[in-house]
Amino acid sequence: MASEPVSVKEFQELARQVLPKMHYDFYAGGAEDEHTLRENVEAFSRITIRPRILIDVSHIDLSTTILGYNISAPIMIAPTGMHKLAHPEGEIATAKAAAACKTIMVLSFSSTCTIEEVASCCNAVRFFQLYVFKSREVSARLVQRAERNGYKAIVLTVDLPRLGRREADIKNKLVKPQLKNFDAVISTEVSSDERSNLQFFSRALDSSLCWKDINWLRSITKLPILIKGVLVPEDAIKAVEVGVDGIIVSNHGARQLDYTPASISALDEVVSAVGGKVPVLFDGGVRRGTDVFKALALGAQAVLIGRPVIFGLAAKGEYGVKQVIQMLSDELELTMALAGCPSVKDINRSHVRTKHQRPLSML
Ligand SMILES: Cc1cc2nc3c(=O)[nH]c(=O)nc-3n(C[C@H](O)[C@H](O)[C@H](O)COP(=O)(O)O)c2cc1C
User: Fold this and answer.
1) Mean of the pLDDT values across residues 350-358?
2) Phi then psi for 128, rounded to 5 degrees?
3) What residues make up the domain containing 100?
């Protein structure tokens, strides 16, 4: 592609060109038939925007606040593993881009740079994403390191009791790079070959994790806890009951259970069930500013982006991540102007119509 990319889609194409097939497939792929992977993006096209006219949009304010932290636009960085497969600077480049764009980065449990390296490279507001291993001690030590190093929240990912079946990775015989965070915490009896095996990761996960374990997590950290991977209102209600500080509606970028609904299709019901008691964030399939707008209209406080960040990183490192976030922010700003919403708080449920929704009665 000779000219500068003008959309996330074009960044994806650049990433495909520069990455080895095995790594591109790892980032772009989803579980099994990849039905939900396609749906995550396509479901946005079934939601239409109801623009309002003759509203002063000479100044558009994209800024918002998440758990008390001001960010320049409601677009955060989702936790995605192993950024060094996309770019040699890995998560350090991503964090610097987050700082430059004044947004929040959620560092993955499976990062290739350490908790400490990412903390010391810049002043981005960082949350730490957690998986719980059978050896609780491993997860507890990582949480404590995150807390000591100034991470501001724990994002507990709950949709991965086992690793989803990603057939491209199986075919490509994907080998994980060294995850340095674990060097000091995983028994030296586990060889590095064994650790590079995706099945080792799957076997290490504590698939007995359940609601009562939120109390265990509370007992080892003072940080706010968000749970990521909520798709149905029943679970959203339970999450509020056990006292989480936030919910992330997500199907893990369609990498876990195929044939779950598109993430955006689950948002409306979850938001209603939560009833404003805790913030609801959203991820899955966001590729345009209009997608961000639709998620906000359906009640998300902010969206997180996974693959778009990786595509930017692979294509152009830190600069590419900045460009992707800026591009989506610019698109959101334009959408807000054209839809008659001068600020994020002006966006509401009346600004979108979903496929199954009857036209609003005129009286
Ligand atoms: C390559 C890749 C790695 C991921 N790794 C993690 C992870 O380590 N922890 C986690 O909670 N979610 C992980 N996710 C899921 C993302 O946090 C997020 O839910 C998803 O990417 C959002 O969809 P999008 O990629 O369409 O934006 C990963 C997603 C991808 C694509």
Assistant:
1) 86
2) -115, 130
3) 8-346
- The pTM assigned to this predicted structure is 0.95
Average pLDDT for 313-324:
98
Task: For residue 112, report the phi and psi dihedrals to the nearest 5 degrees.
Answer: -90, -20
Task: Tell me, yes or no, if 59 is annotated catalytic.
Answer: no
Over range 208-230, report the average pLDDT. 97
Q: Which of 87, 252, 351, 356 is catalytic?
A: 252
Q: Is residue 358 part of a domain?
A: no
Give yes or no for residue 193 having a pLDDT over 70: no
Q: For atom 15 of ligand 1, which residue has the closest CA?
A: 252
Q: Quick one: tokens of 359?
A: 């036209």
Residue 28 CA, ligand 1 centroid: distance in Å: 10
359 in a structural domain: no
- Atom nearest to 78 CA in ligand 1: 17
Is residue 50 domain-resident? yes
CA of 307 to the centre of ligand 1 (A): 7
What single string gives the DSSP state of each residue in 167-211? HHHHHHT--PPP-GGGTTTS-TTS-HHHHTSHHHHHHHB-TT--T
Those residues with Cβ within 8 angstroms of residue 107's Cβ, 6 or more apart along the chain or in another chain: 79, 91, 95, 115, 118, 126, 127, 128, 129, 146, 151
Total domains in the fold of the chain: 1
